[in-house]
Each structure stands twice: as C-alpha cells, then as structure tokens.
C-alpha cells in the first residue's frame, strides 16, 4: 500500500509535468550510458525519425524505426541516457541502443537461453525483454543513474 | 545447483520459441501416461526434460516428433524428436546440425538464396528457407517452406540480425531440435516489408534485406495438410500442484473435421491480427493477451508478488496464490478462469526431476498491456487454435477455444 501511494504521487507529479510537455527540436541521440547530446548516432544510424519531449526530470527521445518499432531513449536534462525502451514488431538494434552494455546482455543471454521472457541484472545494468513473433517489448536501464522520483514503470 | 538452469542462474529466461536443451536427435523419454492417440490426425506430445536432459533440462516445454522428407521423395525422410510445439509462432524450424537430409534451399525474388532472421526476446536464429514435405501422424504437408537454423552454408550473419543479441543457432543454444509453429495464422511475416529485418537475399558472400512473397515465407504446415487443416487442438492432462516428472497428451489436427476434434461446447475467443484477446486481471485491462504453448509459465505483472531472489523473471510467493482473471475475445465472449502462482524455487527444490510445474509464473517484463497464458494453462484443458479465415461449427478463425 505504501509503495502504491508513493507511486500515485509520483504519477500525479509526472502527469502535471507531461501536461506541459514541449516538443523540442530533434537532438543528437546516443546509447545507454552515453551523453544524450554527445553524438548523433542512434537516430542517424538506425534511420529513424526522432521526436524529443521533456518530462519533469528527464527527456524522452522517441525514435520511430523503419521496422515500425518505437525506441525510446531516456536522458537526464543535462546528462546521460539512463534507460532505453522499445515496443513493436521487431527487436531494435540493441548493439546500438545498449552501447557498452550490449556485451553484458549477450553474456547473460548466452548463459541462459530462452525465447519469450528474459530478465537480467548485474551491479550496473538491468535488461528486461519479452517477445513473440511480431510483438516485442523491453527496456534496459542503469539503476544508479535514474533521476530521483522516476519509477521504472514509466520507462516504456 | 541442480540441472535446472531455468532456476539456476541470475540471468533468467522463459522458454518461448524454443525450450532449452541440447544434444542431437534422440529418443524422447518414455511418457508416464500412454498416448491416447492412434488416429491419423493425432500425434503424441509430451513435456519432458528436453533433448539434452543432463546438461540442459527444460521445464514446461511441450515437444512432439515430426518427419521431414525431400519434397516429392518419400524415400528420403528423417524423423526428428523434441520439436517444441508453439502456438505463438508460424512454421517449422529445424536446427540444421540435426538434419541429415539435403533439402532444397528456396530462392528469393532476385534469384539468390532466401535466408531468414528470426528474432526472440533474447537473441536471434539465422538460416535459410528450404522446402520439405512434412509428415506428422497421418497428415502430410507437401513442399512447405521451413527454416534451417544454423546452416553451415550461411554462416555470415548481417549485423542488423545479430544486433538482437546472441545467436541461437545450435541445438545447445536453441534448446530443442526444432520448433513447430502452429498458431492462428499461416505465414510468419505477412505484413513485412523491406525494413522488417526478417528475410534476406544472400549470395555466398553477402546478404541484403528483401521482401519474401507470401508463398515463399516459412508457414504453418497445418494449413498445408490435405484435410484437418483449419487448426489444432492440444489436450494435456491435469497436473498435480507439486508437478509431474513428465506429462503426455495429444496434438489433434483439424477442428470439427473428425469425430475426435469436435468443438463441443467450448468457449470461443476470437483474436485480432496480433493473435490477441483481452484479459481483465487485478483491475487491469490487458488488451494484448494470448495463449501460448511456447511459454513455460504464466506471465503477467503484479508488483505485489515477490520475485524469486536473483531470479526476478519468476515469482516466488511465500505460499501458493490463487487468482482469477476474465478472458474476453474480440467477439465479446468472456470466460473467467483461475490459476495458481506457486513459489517457483520451492517447486524446483521439492522435486528437482519434475519437468511439468503448473504453478510456475513470472513477470511479463516491460509491457503494461500483456498477459501470457503459457503452458500451465494447457494442463487439464483441451485448447483449440483455429487458423485465420477458416471456419468450424463454432466460428471462424482466428480464434482460441477451450
């Protein structure tokens, strides 16, 4: 109950912030853990169309990939991408989106193969992925870099 | 740890498009219950520890045996066991290292070889499309496009495919000798275009994305049977709460085509183009819900249920939890069903050799709109999956009924 109440408050705050969302000019994107403004890698390399919006304490960079999948990158207002999330008919390019954490994911998945639901975490990185044919969703985030007051549930 | 990898490491997965396991084509473990089936449209299915029970035992993974033949040549056939039965994919995929036959590789529209990238939640499988005659029980599907995963002749994988994660191109990595996708649709990528990343045209040295025509796509072989081709019924016995070492049941082809596959009074839930219906659970309306013999548990989100320590994809409540949920088809038909969530780790520890565990459930990560009714849903039920556009006495596919 306590947890849910806290989440409710957080959501109310978030909703207020979202009401004031500003659609910002497309910015350079980068992979998980990289500065948001440091490189124009992801959108360009993924050939996606970007839309960036600001929420209370972070920005969401939404990339519509040619496959139809939506890739969202979450960055702090002044710093790094702390989460990525995806939803759509195909997996995104995770090598690009996860950046330096891609190898962590690959090692974990190799040691524990599955197909439909996957979850891993180590001391710096969490990866959650679900998928069946033509329907994939997932997220990866850096627990230590998520801004205060932001819940994992909103990272999707 | 015991051999239960699914519970034995901190990176946890569920078994979707395949189970876990390894080794080569062998003899399935003897089922505890004798097969019910003898009819031409019925094949035995079983839950066991998989093709490599010592090194890679599986849980809640349903297998059958298929025979593939060189098209038009009934003298060149191979029987392959431990093919996972999957109602949420489309088409037969075989691990190429298991195959001793030489099957003709399909051509893309540009004349080069047609190769497919099949993605999963945690990786990909890569391999050419080939055609085969497929025999299951007394049914035969002629010249069906199938995928040969991990073919040595197509070892160069485009970066766009391998960027999904690790390769699952060997029996050990894929966890089965193959997978039989018998969901409610026929082709595996009907809406795909050049950007979908599914099919490639490959020369010996390079691959580029291509659109595969519908007829060339890997396809649900049931639709290619001469009869009994409008869907399937899976029947499995009820399993005790503690689980069972193995379970044996039947995969019946056709619905309302024979005496053994009559619809009866089943509840029919029609599906949308994503094979989804709606589940109402715990105040949530989950519009992307599905019944999936290829998932090894019931997967849904309930933050009140503790996750297993260091194994967060599975639930580990202190005791068994009983829930109900209401499933509603696109046709508006509803049914309320109950299910149990047990402590996955306790189940495993109590009977390490059990492979059928009805209480295994876990988190449907990163989706707030989905409910995955995996293999435990099938225990004690008779579940029909009817193919899109096909009619039965109970309705028109795509639908599921039970």
Short description:
The complex is a heterodimer of chains A (about 160) and B (about 400). Chain A contains four helices and eight strands. Chain A is an alpha+beta fold.
Number of helices of chain A: 4
Strand residues, percent of chain B: 35-45%
Tell me the structural class of chain B: mainly beta
Number of helices, counting only DSSP H or I runs of 4 residues or more of chain B = 4
Looking at the structure, what is the overall shape of chain B?
A: globular
**Which percent range fits the helix content of chain A?**
10-25%
Molecular shape of chain A: globular
Gyration radius of chain B, rounded: 20 Å
Briefly note the structural class of the backbone of chain A: alpha+beta
Key terms:
heterodimer, A: about 160 residues, alpha+beta, eight-stranded antiparallel β-sheet, 4 helices, about 30% strand, globular, B: about 400 residues, mainly beta
Structure explained in plain terms:
The complex is a heterodimer of chains A (156) and B (402). In chain A, 24% of the residues lie in helices and 31% in strands. Chain A has 156 residues and is an alpha+beta fold. Chain A has an 8-stranded antiparallel beta sheet with strand order 1-2-3-4-5-8-7-6, covered by helices on one side. In chain A, β4 and β5 form a beta hairpin. Chain B is mostly beta strands and 402 residues long. Chain B has 4 helices and 27 strands. Chain B is globular and about 55 Å long. The chains are: A alpha+beta (156), B mainly beta (402). β6 of chain A pairs antiparallel with β1 of chain B, so a sheet runs across the interface.
């Amino acid at each position: 109950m306590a947890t849910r109440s806290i989440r409710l408050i957080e959501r109310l705050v978030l909703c207020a912030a979202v009401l004031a969302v500003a659609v910002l000019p497309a910015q350079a994107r980068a992979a998980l853990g990289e500065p948001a403004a440091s490189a124009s890698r992801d959108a360009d390399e993924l050939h996606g169309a970007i839309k960036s919006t600001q929420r209370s304490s972070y920005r969401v960079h939404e990339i519509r990939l040619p496959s139809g999948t939506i890739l969202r990158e979450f960055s702090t207002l002044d710093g790094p991408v702390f989460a990525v999330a995806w939803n759509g008919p195909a997996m995104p390019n995770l090598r690009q989106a996860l950046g330096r954490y891609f190898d962590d994911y690959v090692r974990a998945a190799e040691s524990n193969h599955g197909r439909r639901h996957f979850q891993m975490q180590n001391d710096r990185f969490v990866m959650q992925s679900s998928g069946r044919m033509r329907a994939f969703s997932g997220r990866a985030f850096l627990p230590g870099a998520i801004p205060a007051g932001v819940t994992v549930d909103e990272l999707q | 740890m015991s051999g239960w990898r699914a519970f034995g490491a901190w990176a946890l997965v569920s078994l979707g498009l395949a189970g876990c396991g390894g080794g080569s084509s062998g003899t399935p473990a003897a089922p505890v219950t004798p097969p019910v089936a003898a009819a031409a449209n019925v094949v035995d299915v079983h839950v066991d520890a998989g093709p490599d029970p010592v090194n890679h035992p599986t849980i809640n993974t349903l297998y059958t045996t298929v025979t593939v033949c060189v098209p038009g040549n009934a003298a060149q056939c191979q029987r392959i066991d431990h093919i996972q039965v999957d109602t949420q994919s489309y088409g037969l995929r075989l691990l190429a290292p298991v195959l001793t036959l030489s099957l003709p590789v399909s051509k893309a529209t540009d004349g080069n070889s047609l190769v497919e990238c099949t993605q999963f939640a945690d990786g990909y499988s890569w391999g050419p499309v080939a055609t085969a005659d497929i025999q299951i029980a007394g049914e035969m599907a002629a010249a069906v496009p199938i995928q040969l995963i991990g073919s040595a002749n197509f070892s160069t994988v485009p970066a766009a495919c391998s960027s999904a994660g690790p390769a699952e191109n060997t029996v050990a990595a894929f966890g089965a000798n193959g997978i039989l996708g018998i969901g409610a649709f026929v082709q595996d990528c009907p809406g795909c275009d050049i950007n979908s990343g599914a099919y490639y045209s490959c020369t010996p040295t390079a691959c580029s994305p291509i659109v595969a025509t519908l007829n060339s796509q890997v396809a649900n072989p049931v639709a290619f049977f001469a009869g009994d081709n409008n869907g399937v019924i899976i029947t499995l016995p009820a399993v005790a709460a503690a689980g069972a070492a193995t379970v044996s049941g039947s995969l019946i082809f056709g619905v309302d085509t024979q005496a053994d596959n009559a619809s009866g009074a089943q509840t029919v839930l029609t599906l949308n183009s994503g094979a989804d219906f709606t589940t109402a659970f715990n105040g949530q309306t989950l519009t992307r819900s599905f019944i999936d013999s290829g998932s090894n548990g019931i997967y849904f989100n309930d933050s009140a249920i503790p996750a297993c320590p260091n194994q967060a994809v599975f639930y580990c409540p202190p005791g068994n939890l009983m829930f109900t949920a209401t499933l509603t088809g696109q046709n508006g038909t509803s049914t309320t069903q109950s299910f149990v969530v047990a402590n996955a780790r306790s189940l495993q520890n109590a009977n390490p050799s059990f492979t059928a565990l009805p209480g295994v459930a876990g988190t449907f990560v990163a989706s707030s709109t989905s409910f995955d009714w995996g293999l435990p849903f099938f225990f004690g039920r008779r579940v029909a999956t009817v193919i899109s556009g096909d009619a039965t006495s109970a309705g028109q596919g795509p639908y599921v009924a039970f």
